[in-house]
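Can anyone check this?
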Amino acid sequence: QVQLVESGGGLVQPGGSLSLSCAASRFTLDNYGIGWFRQAPGKEREGVSCISRSDSRTWYTDSVKGRFTISRDNIKNTVYLQMHNLKPEDTAVYYCAAGRDHYYCSDSGIRMTDYWGQGTQVTVSS
C-alpha cells in the first residue's frame, strides 16, 4: 500500500516558521511529482506548491510566494515545505500529494493527484 506521511505541523505565532515533511513508503518519490495542498475550515482544498519529478521545477500559489519553499531529498525519499513569515490565513490542514503524470507540476499549478497523505494541522495564532 502506497503511503505518504506528513509531519511537522503545529501551533506557531504570526511571523514564525514551520517545516513540513512528506515521507513516502512503498514507492519512490523521485518517480512522482509532489504537491502540497491545504484546506482551511469551511473552504475548499487549494494547491499551495509543487515540485516536478524530472527537473525539480517548482510552482507556488501567489499567496505563499516568497514565504514558502518546496524541496525534495530523493535519498531520504522525502519532500519538504519550509514555511516562513506565517500568517493567520495560513492556518489549515496541509496535505502532501503525489502524481504520476510527467506534467503533474507545471507553471500553471498541479494536475490530477494519484495519492494523498492524511494531513497535518498548521495553526498560526497569537
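Reply from J.R.: I decoded it. The chain has a mean pLDDT of 94.
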